[in-house]
Design goal:
The complex is a heterodimer of chains A (144) and B (107).
Chain A: E1 16-21, E2 34-39, E3 46-51, E4 58-62, H1 64-67, H2 77-82, E5 92-99, E6 105-107, E7 113-116, E8 121-124, E9 137-138
Antiparallel strand pairs in A: 1-2, 2-3, 3-4, 4-5, 5-6, 5-7, 6-9, 7-8
Chain B: E1 11-14, E2 18-26, E3 29-35, H1 45-58, H2 71-74, H3 85-88, E4 102-106
Antiparallel strand pairs in B: 1-2, 2-3, 3-4
The chains are: A mainly beta (144), B alpha+beta (107).
Chain lengths: 144, 107
């Protein structure tokens, strides 16, 4: 993944690391603004959102569309504007995964992270349809 | 906690840059208009709390094995095409509005 180029979804799978900024931080972790998106081919489709300032703090994330192909968070005009998303510009969306044991994991569909691939600035947004989106959607985990 | 009484269409100003206006009162529902700069996040408390709690549960270290998705799901490619926010937005007769003006309208 070449961070000097706009990130394409297909790039998030090759082993690489990319710095992104979240000026508002994650909800509940507002003090951390800089993150590295870390990918490892062996861990696909998951990748890591690593807090730069705190090496012991990271979040497992993934493209929600892998697990929920018809996922449609309605991103507000204000959020799109604050990310500088221009018309026709497709953001990269990924969601935080909670591992709840060897065979249980969930994905938070209520608070997606929206990344402007051109500026590498991201925000954890609350979509307009958040009340209808689960905060802990079960992921199909392989049992071996 | 500071407690203020406000009538319909009256406002309070916070820190000289955030204005909260009572837009409508209907029974036990109060509709508030909030004008705040873009760097001031405004959220409904219960949704904010839910996502914050989920973030705290998800916080981890980048160690140990990552779960493996069941193969049928893992094989599916990302399909972001149905997610274009711009397709759902009202088309721009609102061009004159500053993006920072009315940040949220919380019912």
């Amino acid at each position: 993944m070449n961070c000097m180029e706009p990130i394409e979804p297909r790039d998030l799978g090759v082993g690489a690391e990319c710095l992104i900024q979240m000026p508002l931080g994650l909800l509940g972790f507002e003090r951390f603004k800089s993150f590295a998106l870390v990918t490892n081919p062996e861990e696909e489709p998951f990748l890591w959102l690593q807090v730069v300032e705190e090496p012991k703090l990271a979040f497992l994330v993934m493209s929600p569309f892998v697990a929920v192909p018809n996922y449609q968070p309605e991103i507000s005009e204000e959020d799109a504007g604050s990310l500088g998303l221009q018309n026709q510009e497709e953001p990269l969306i990924f969601n935080i995964v909670t591992v709840r044991g060897a065979q249980q994991a969930t994905i938070n569909l209520k608070g997606p992270i929206v990344l402007n691939r051109r500026t590498l600035v991201a925000k954890q947004v609350i979509p307009l349809n958040a009340p209808n989106l689960p905060v802990a959607h079960p992921l199909p985990i392989q049992s071996n | 906690m500071l407690i203020l009484s406000r009538k319909l269409n009256e406002s309070i100003v916070i820190d000289g840059r955030i204005t909260v206006t009572v837009m409508r009162v209907d029974g036990d529902v109060v509709k508030l208009g909030i004008a705040a700069p873009a760097d001031v996040p405004v959220h409904r408390q219960e949704v904010y709390d839910e996502i914050r709690r989920s973030n705290h549960e998800a916080a981890t270290q980048r160690t140990g094995p990552v779960p493996r998705l069941s193969p049928n799901r893992a094989a599916q490619a990302a399909q972001p095409t149905k997610n274009r926010w711009q397709d759902r937005q009202p088309q721009p007769d609102r061009a004159g509005h500053s993006p920072n003006h009315i940040k949220a309208n919380i019912a």
